[in-house]
Amino acid sequence: MNTMTCEELADRLPDWAAGRLAGPEAEATAAHVHGCADCAAQAALLRALVASRPTAPAGMSERIAVALREPSRSAPPAITGWRRPQWVVSAAAVLVLALGTVVFRQTAEPTDVTAVSSALGDVVEEEPVAWTLDDGAVAGAPVLDDLSEEALATLIEELGA
Amino acid sequence: MDPEALNELVTLHQASAYRVALGILGSEADAQDATQDGMLRALRGLAGFRGDASFRTWLLAIVANEARSLIRRSARRREAPLDEDVAGEAPGRGVAEGVVLQAEEARVRAMLARLPEKQRLAVQLRVDEGLSFREVGEVIGSTEGAARVNYHHGIRRLREWLE
Ligand SMILES: [Zn+2]
Asked: Which residues of chain B neighbour A83 with C-beta distances below 8 Å?
């Protein structure tokens, strides 16, 4: 009989089923599996998992490599993927109204500003594209980062009122 | 870091990253988005990599977080038109072209998707990626012991379902 218990074997069985074991360890595992119906059933399950392992979609790594060469086009490191608190977006809107020339570029249509100003207070769902800056980064946090603490405090106070 | 080295890292880890994202999201298109965003985030933030985990483990944890955050904003995402690339993708479960899964294999993979997330990821990371239980824990945010328990519970459940 084998010296290895089923429990000891279970931890390494996925490596054996995936062909990642070699030498005496692989032989000992194979010997146990051949003599143990329970571990053989588990190994069969693991082999089925290994056989059905998804592969990366064609062209994905090229797309990532291309995106990597275009630093600010997608996935800005700090903010993408996180829904910013409402006051941050609103603060950006106020900032646009106050210092419009600094923040906005030609990408923003005048109608956007009108829409924002008329609906100040519930502008949160404004499409991000309206806030696009020259460098392609999504506006908001980067702009607010440039604000002085004093200016930021003022904006927050206004919005809270 | 020079561009070639970065490309090499992408090539080396993209499949694992994609599988982790797919395991969390279930959708191939969303998994591609999360993989790309997570890898960009990781590779641009390499300074944050302290070397206390393997690069792969660190990367997979970032991609997993990206996938979870994508779930939170997925409703909004689905309203947007699909990228051409994504719209043109082949149907199927992300398995390589020309590979025909046996019915049992496909069934096992489908069952895997029904496990609770931690068990599912523990099984995936241990079986598909060959991570140690300590590394699995680093990706799913648990101890080594908890990662082992999640793995074994997941395997046990799969066996029960498939009997
Ligand atoms: Zn056994």
From this structure: 72-73
